[in-house]
Amino acid sequence: MENRLAWYRRGMRDGIPIALGYFAVAFTLGIAAKNAGFTPVQAMVASLTNNASAGEYAAFSLVAAGASYWEVAVMTLVANARYLLMSCALSQKFAPGTPLIHRLVVGYDVTDEIFGICTARPGYLNPFYPYGAMSVAIPGWALGTLLGGVMGNILPARLVSALSVGLYGMFLAIIIPPARKDRVIAGLVAVSFAASFVISYLPALAAVSSGVKTIVLTVALSLAAAVLFPVGPERGGEQA
Questions:
Q1: Alpha-carbon gap, residue 20 to 27, rounded angstroms
Q2: What is the DSSP string of 181-201?
Q3: Which listed site, 48, 71, 105, 206, has its alpha carbon 20 to 30 Å from 190?
């Protein structure tokens, strides 16, 4: 059993690219917060307590429109609903005896990217691995929001837009290695891309939030994959 410090350092190492991506993307979030009437410090605190881009964008947009607290709360819940599925899936990566407190703390920051690097690790997951990733990813997100609120409007719009591209490259770095090793995973990735593209342009679903669409696709594709390509009961890899 590796010690906690080793897992924590490994999480920090894998979390550095995430932090850099968050820092770039959060610039535009800081601009949205400023336009909604938030100070840079208030925007930074919002990012520290709600590390979710879609949820924060939705909240800032509603605040700018003069929405009520209830409307902001409901919209944030819907926009972040996909994290419920991610948390359920990630909970299966922990050893059966993992204390509840660790599960709760990790659940605080189950983002798309941290979920990706955690599920990509073989075997059971030591909670200090996501702790390490969180310790660099959260400050990167909050600092990016702060600086976006301070100087985002000064930067050229094209530069701000270009900064956000780095996060998509990070997603590719997460999914490409396992897809190259397993044809089933590669096929599922391709199908998920195509389905996501199609569902985003269906007129009948135009009023449905991106979070709900993500949940529907995730459940449907995961169920189909489990039925068509079941995984054996054995679990290889290192144990936490």
A1: 11
A2: H-HHHHHHHHHHHHHHHHHHT
A3: 206
Closest to 144 measured CA to CA, from 119, 127, 164, 121: 164
Q: Cα(211)–Cα(199) distance, rounded to whole angstroms?
A: 12
Distance, in Å, from the CA atom of 211 to the CA atom of 54, rounded to the nearest integer, reads: 8
User: What b/e sequence results for 225-238 when a residue is b if at least 16 CB atoms lie within 10 Å of its CB, and e otherwise?
Assistant: beeeeeeeeeeeee
Burial category of 165 from C-beta neighbours within 10 Å (exposed 0-12, middle 13-18, buried 19 and up): exposed
Q: What is the pTM of this model?
A: 0.69
Cβ atoms of residues 18 and 136 within 8 Å: yes
Q: Which pLDDT score is estimated for 81? A: 78
Tell me the mean pLDDT in the region 101-121. Answer: 89
* End-to-end alpha carbon distance in the chain: 6
The HSE-up count of residue 225 (CA atoms within 13 Å, CB side) is 17
Q: Is residue 114 pLDDT above 80, yes or no?
A: yes
Amino acid identity, position 4: R
* Contact call for residues 160 and 27 (beta carbons, < 8 A): yes
Tokens 């007129």 belong to which residue? 203
Helices 165-181, 183-200: inter-axial angle, 10-degree rounding: 140
Closest CA to 105 of 224, 227, 16, 8: 8
Residue 41 is predicted with a pLDDT of 92
Closest CA to 47 of 35, 66, 60: 60
